[in-house]
Write a structure and sequence with these properties.
The complex is a heterodimer. Chain A is an alpha/beta fold. Helix content of chain A is 41%, strand content 14%. Chain B has two domains: 69-227; 237-407, no CATH class. In chain B, strands 1-3 form a two-stranded antiparallel sheet. Chain B has a two-stranded parallel ribbon with strand order 2-4. The chains are: A alpha/beta, B mainly alpha.
Chain lengths: 445, 407
């Protein structure tokens, strides 16, 4: 079996969620199939500047083909187009222009996909919202397996993505919430899909004491891991935390791991230790009272899963459906919707070590049950086997004609998104134990 | 700064406000989803969060959002600026001036009509060049008729004055507008704070009421336990008190002392009850309680006799004789008289559980057992010596202490 993985960026030092997801999947599936990665030469997701040399490369035993990005992203233009399609009545052409302005536009990558139509059995397209995934799905829909990594973002309300969700061969979802959201947006129940998610390379043993000594972490602390960015809810986290710490002399330290995009407030209890390597990260998380996830929009939080894998509870933003759903389904974390709840949750965890322990144990069990690599691999292989043994039952819808694309008949994407159902999928399963059949019209079950 | 302002409201199990999310709610998982994983360790996150939210709600009392408080404040603002009580259109003026401050500043500019330059030549000026030329030509003839120079000077001066006045007026308007805006802002905030304060005081009142109810309930509970204790006293083995002759010179209350004696003969710890723990309507006067007939076999305790009018060791105002006769004579007549001068040594029979059979069912939380100290009559000397060991009992003392027999 030959599998192509198409992703916007790829590299050992690229730690973005979807990119890391793609790399992990590539390396795991390489044990069972001939895997080839098709990606761009970009390293920076804001500019898509060509930084890697084009051509074939190998990374951890995986062949990586890189293609040049034809033009860098113009942030101003992209912002204007985003405002237009998100908040005004617009046409399909406007959406396609938005997609091109978002990038990474790489016609050569699409040409390669077109030429290799018969070369690959399946093409895993990562990140539905990007140029390569959209056009890649249109080029080879019969082999396209989409990993949407979609979150509750206005882009999901755009009309151009609906045929993609309805036309690809299968979809690998990250969470039940994502699945429900996409199904509600695109009415694609007939497309085989399964909630898979992603595992992580959890070390067999961790040394919290070593991390404490290395980073001078005294006393109890909670940790945030990820890009320190207002878009990730960090501004709100700082606000809530400083208000909490102002009322308590024994507040736990807030330890921040990651590159700051946002200015970190100078506070005696906030400690930024920068970007650290994986062993340090796991050691710090393992020694924390809890991991804080303040993000409003997540398709799947890998650090939350890692914290659970390490037996630590998670304090999640209750406004994020996915995190909330995971907390509720796993019984492995608490959540907050405002500053008072944030403080109360912290107080509760700090006062009750038994509860922390139990939440951590539940989280670990949740991780092992749904996100261990054996489970993830099995789901992918089951899906491929299912698709191989069943002929496609649906086709990709044709692109509308020249005039139809220019008619301003599409509603603002944000408005469309608002009408989609929300909230955690309380009774859902995060994919079961790996034996569940792919879902959809052609599903086995 | 309220960071929740403008955000979605209270979030509960995925229900979101319509501002960001649609009105639809998810109805759970798709039908082809598998079963939910088993919950381990009996931690229910939803229950914990419910508890946390309940506690927050209790702590903050009546839950009102910032918007609701502002609405309330707006209503109060209307009331404060009641047109009947103040200038009729004050509120409108304030609002208008608060809103149109920049306009009022910009409209009046001293450089427009008022500051039109005026001098001697202005009299003969004209946009028409020919006319200007003719006037200039005929100017000497006009000067022969009258002197236009003072007129030109006066008009120039007036023009300058007009400009200055206009500038002053504009400045005054600007300041007034700023003051108006400031006043309106202050009033608005004042009303907001008053509303907030009123809500908070309302919460506090409710809380005080709740606490008072709790105190009342606890008092009743204490009394019921004490009553139960009295009824629970065994009839036979208990040595009841003997009327004691008054010993006025000793100072110690020479009342019948029915106290518990620890088998180990440990010094007795007596409970001291603070004045005023019971509500005014709840207090039973010592006389009343003393004169009330007691059931046969009941043991009259010091606490019961003393009433609730002060610390135990305070001297009772009643005459001792009266106390003795009313308290002890009739109800305890059946019991064997015990002289107070002789200490009662608890016998084996008394301390054994087989002998102590409560005549009434014991409703106390701690049932009697063989290890329980047994009530006995303590000599007066013991009472006196025990006095220094008295410790005031905390109001928050657990009730089961009141129910112990050795009290």
């Amino acid at each position: 079996m030959k599998i192509a993985i198409v992703v916007q960026r790829y590299g050992a030092d690229i730690s973005g969620g979807a990119e890391l997801h793609a790399r992990y999947i590539a390396e795991r599936l390489a044990r069972y199939a001939d895997v080839r990665v098709l990606t761009t030469c970009a390293r920076d997701y804001l500019t898509w500047r060509n930084e890697f040399p084009p051509g074939v490369d190998r990374l951890n035993g995986i062949a990586v083909e890189r293609f040049r990005v034809s033009c860098e992203r113009d942030a101003a233009e992209f912002g204007l187009r985003s405002v237009h399609v998100f908040s005004r009545r617009h046409s399909l052409d406007d959406e396609l222009d938005w997609l091109a302005s978002q990038g990474p536009t790489s016609p050569t990558l699409l040409d390669r996909l077109s030429q290799g139509r018969d070369e690959f059995d399946f093409v895993l397209l990562f990140c539905a919202r990007y140029f390569h995934a959209y056009h890649g799905a249109r080029i080879i829909p019969e082999r396209a397996v989409l990993v949407p990594t979609a979150e509750r973002d206005p882009a999901l309300g755009m009309a151009m993505f609906r045929p993609i969700f309805r036309g690809v061969r299968a979809i690998m979802y990250n969470s039940p919430e994502e699945q429900l959201l996409i199904r509600a947006a695109a009415s694609n129940d007939h497309v085989p899909g399964v909630v898979v998610g992603i595992g992580s390379e959890i070390p067999a043993a961790v040394e919290p004491a070593r991390a404490r000594a290395k980073f001078d972490l005294a006393g109890r602390y909670v940790v945030y891991v990820g890009r320190i960015d207002a878009n990730k809810g960090c501004a709100e986290l700082f606000d809530f935390y400083t208000r909490y710490a102002a009322e308590r002399s024994d507040a736990p330290t807030l330890v921040l791991i990651g590159r700051p995009v946002l200015e970190i407030p100078k506070h005696p209890f906030i400690k930024h230790i920068g970007f650290v390597d994986d062993p340090d990260k796991f050691d710090v998380v393992a020694g924390a009272t809890a991991l804080v996830m303040p993000s409003y929009c997540e398709s799947l939080s890998m650090v939350a899963l890692e914290a659970w894998a390490l037996g630590r509870p998670v304090i999640a933003n209750a406004h994020c459906d996915v995190l909330l759903g995971q907390c509720l389904r796993s019984n492995g974390g608490l959540y907050y919707a405002n500053a008072e709840e944030f403080g109360a949750v912290l107080d509760r965890l700090l006062a009750d070590a038994v509860l922390v322990d139990r939440l951590g144990r539940n989280g670990r069990q949740f991780y092992e049950q749904h996100y261990s690599w054996a489970v993830i691999e099995r789901k992918y292989l089951d899906m491929f086997a299912f698709l191989s043994s069943n002929a496609p039952t649906h086709r990709m819808e044709q692109m509308p004609g020249w005039f139809a694309r220019r008619v301003r008949s599409l509603r603002p994407a944000a408005q469309v998104l608002d009408e989609l159902p929300s909230g955690p999928a309380l009774d859902a399963d995060d994919g079961g134990s790996g034996r569940s059949a792919p879902q959809g019209q052609g599903a086995i079950a | 700064m309220d960071h929740n302002q403008g955000r979605r409201g209270h979030f509960h199990r995925g229900r979101r406000g319509p501002d960001r999310r649609g009105p639809e709610r998810r109805q759970g998982a798709p039908p082809d989803q598998g079963n939910r994983p088993e919950r381990t360790d009996r931690v229910d996150v939803e229950q914990i969060m419910r508890d946390i939210r309940t506690r927050i709600a209790q702590r903050s009392g009546i839950e009102l959002s910032n918007q609701q408080i502002q609405d309330l404040a707006a209503r109060r603002l209307e009331a404060i600026l009641d047109p009947r009580g103040l200038k009729p259109e004050l509120l409108d003026q304030l609002r208008r001036s608060a809103g149109e401050r920049p306009v009022s500043v910009d409209v009046v500019t001293p450089g427009s009509a008022q500051s039109y330059p005026f001098d001697e030549a202005t009299l003969y000026d004209s946009p028409n060049a020919l006319l200007r030329f003719i006037r200039k030509l005929l100017q000497p003839i006009l000067r022969m008729m009258f002197n236009p120079t003072p007129i030109a000077h006066a008009l120039a001066l007036q023009s300058r004055l007009n400009a200055e006045i206009a500038a002053r007026e504009a400045e005054r308007d600007r300041r007034q507008a700023e003051w108006n805006a400031l006043h309106y802002e202050i009033l608005q905030r004042l009303a907001l704070e008053v509303s907030r304060g009123a809500i908070e005081s309302q919460n506090l009142v409710l809380r005080v009421e709740s606490l008072a109810a709790k105190v009342d309930f606890n008092e009743r509970r204490v009394r019921s336990i004490e009553g139960t204790q009295v009824r629970a006293r065994p009839q036979e083995p208990v040595q009841t008190a003997q009327p004691v002759p008054s010993v006025p010179s000793e100072g110690a209350a020479p009342l019948p002392q029915v106290v518990a004696i620890q088998p180990g003969d440990a010094p007795r710890r007596r409970r001291r009850r603070r004045r005023g723990r019971r509500g005014p309507g709840m207090t039973v006067p010592a006389e009343a309680s003393a004169s009330a007939p007691l059931p046969p076999g009941a043991v009259v305790e010091q606490d019961d006799v003393e009433g609730e009018d002060g610390f135990e060791d305070e001297v009772a105002p009643e005459p001792l004789d009266a106390m003795e006769s009313t308290t002890v004579s009739e109800p305890i007549a059946e019991a064997a008289p015990v002289t107070s001068s002789e200490p009662i040594i608890p016998s084996e029979a008394i301390t054994s559980s087989g002998v102590i059979t409560p005549s009434a069912p014991v409703t106390s939380s701690e049932p009697l057992s063989s290890s329980e100290p047994i009530a006995a009559v303590e000599p007066l000397a013991t009472a006196e010596t025990a006095a220094p060991h008295e410790e005031p009992s905390s109001p928050a003392e657990p009730d089961h202490q009141d129910g112990q027999v050795n009290e």
